[in-house]
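Below is our example:

___
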Amino acid sequence: MPPSNSTTERDEIRELLADNIRALDDRITQARAEGLSVETEELQLRRLHTTAQLARQYRLLARDADVDEVEADVDLLREALAKQRQ
């Protein structure tokens, strides 16, 4: 099982990513309500691109957490099988 502090760090990173995604979404929504100039549209595209990158990183961290859980379950099963064989 992975150390608990790495899980905590992962959770902190995921929360940071989620906060940034929400903040970018708020900015995008606000800019749409105010109307889009050419400069604002370019900024919106950059914000959307950044949001997509953050979402991808968030998803990868979530997948890593799932893999860690499966590995921990496999380790428990191996230990249980080893005890049964003894």
User: Anything to note?
Assistant: The chain has a mean pLDDT of 83.
